[in-house]
């Protein structure tokens, strides 16, 4: 009882500590609101038109920034669906096997019915001992959350949350709006920052707020710009931070561009098809987080093969890899056992003139 009680106390203290970076950001933002709205716009700017324009634009950017930040923090990361978890009988069977090779045989048998194409560096099935599940493609176990996270990018201390499939769009918008917020403050505060050094401001406490507001906004702009540019590059390449550090491994080997479908489709996989939702912190990403289209032509030989599946694979390459946006069962059906769609080949058998209109192929 004592060890479990001490562990729960330790876990509770850790949870409190994890919120400190978020609290720090919240205090900085609250102070910046006070300094900009009250001390700069209301106290220091005399021109009414300039004051109104600054306040209107500031509040639009501020609302979008806070909204995106809130969504990034409080959107729960998605975990693998139950189809990827081991059944009770499979767990028992796995525990009875001592040899790694036998365990891999069991995992391969289970994985053949799932849309899993990535492997470990040694070519083994990716399995999580703590969660007792087969990891979907791009899924990783977070040591902080102690869960497997779909399309995990990284665990961000500044939002006290895992950034993954469910909130990556929100994280990108948070970076974009926070950068815009800092750049707007820096640009509009610059004139009064110069007046401060030329002694053109009245001798009140407002001038000190204007001074520190400019310094803090400009410094945050530099760090946010570098981070935002890096994640824009990741979106264009359809990679996560973890995949940029260590490229995903497929059956044919490591391929850092395995999930890249071209700039347009990579972007839409994160932000969705409807342009009106791109700048809004509402979920519009494509797919189910468990399976992802790839640019690979060589299919995994361990997955079920059929004329229909190979035909659909070629079709997906030609038509641009449609994203799986349906539940897992239907995604499996589309990825692995697609409905046959036959088309006549230029070199195929010609129709018989006596009335044979089609050729029935028995598989």
Automatic annotation (TrEMBL):
Segments forming domain Palmitoyltransferase DHHC: 125-245
Protein name, entry field: Palmitoyltransferase
A GO cellular-component term linked to this record: membrane
Keyword terms of this UniProt record: Acyltransferase, Membrane, Transferase, Transmembrane, Transmembrane helix
Lineage, top ranks: Eukaryota, Metazoa, Chordata, Craniata, Vertebrata
Entry superkingdom: Eukaryota
Gene that encodes the chain: zdhhc2
One Pfam family this sequence matches: DHHC
Places the protein is found: Membrane
């Amino acid at each position: 009882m004592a060890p479990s009680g001490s562990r729960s106390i330790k876990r509770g203290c850790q949870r409190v500590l994890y919120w400190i970076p978020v609290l720090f950001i919240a205090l900085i933002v609250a102070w910046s609101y006070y300094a900009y709205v009250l001390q700069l716009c209301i106290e220091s700017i005399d021109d009414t038109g300039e004051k109104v324009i600054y306040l209107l634009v500031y509040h639009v950017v501020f609302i979008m920034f806070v909204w995106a930040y809130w969504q990034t923090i409080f959107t729960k990361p998605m975990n693998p669906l139950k189809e990827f978890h081991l059944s009770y009988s499979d767990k028992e069977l796995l525990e009875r096997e001592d040899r790694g090779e036998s365990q891999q045989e069991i995992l391969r048998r289970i994985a053949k019915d799932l849309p899993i194409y990535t492997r470990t560096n040694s070519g083994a099935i990716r399995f999580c001992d703590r969660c007792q599940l087969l990891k979907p493609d791009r899924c990783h176990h977070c040591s902080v959350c102690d869960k497997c996270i779909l399309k995990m990018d990284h665990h961000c201390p500044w939002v006290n949350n895992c950034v993954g499939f469910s909130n990556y769009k929100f994280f990108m918008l948070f970076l974009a709006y926070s950068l815009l917020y800092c750049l707007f403050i820096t640009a509009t505060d610059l004139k009064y920052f110069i007046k401060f050094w030329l002694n053109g401001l009245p001798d009140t406490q407002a001038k000190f707020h204007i001074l520190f507001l400019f310094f803090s906004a400009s410094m945050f702009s530099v760090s946010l710009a570098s981070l935002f540019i890096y994640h824009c590059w990741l979106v264009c390449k359809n990679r996560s931070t973890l995949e940029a550090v260590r490229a995903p491994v497929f059956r044919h080997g490591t391929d850092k561009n395995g999930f890249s479908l071209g700039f347009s489709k990579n972007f839409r996989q994160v932000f969705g098809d409807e342009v009106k939702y791109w700048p809004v912190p509402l979920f519009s990403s494509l797919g189910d987080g468990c399976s992802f289209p790839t640019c690979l032509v060589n299919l995994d030989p361990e997955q079920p093969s059929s004329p229909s599946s190979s035909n659909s694979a070629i079709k997906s390459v030609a038509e641009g890899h449609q994203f799986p946006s349906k539940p897992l069962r239907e995604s499996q059906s589309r990825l692995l056992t697609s409905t046959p769609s036959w088309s006549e080949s230029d070199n195929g058998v010609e129709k018989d003139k006596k009335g044979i209109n089609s050729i029935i192929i028995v598989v």
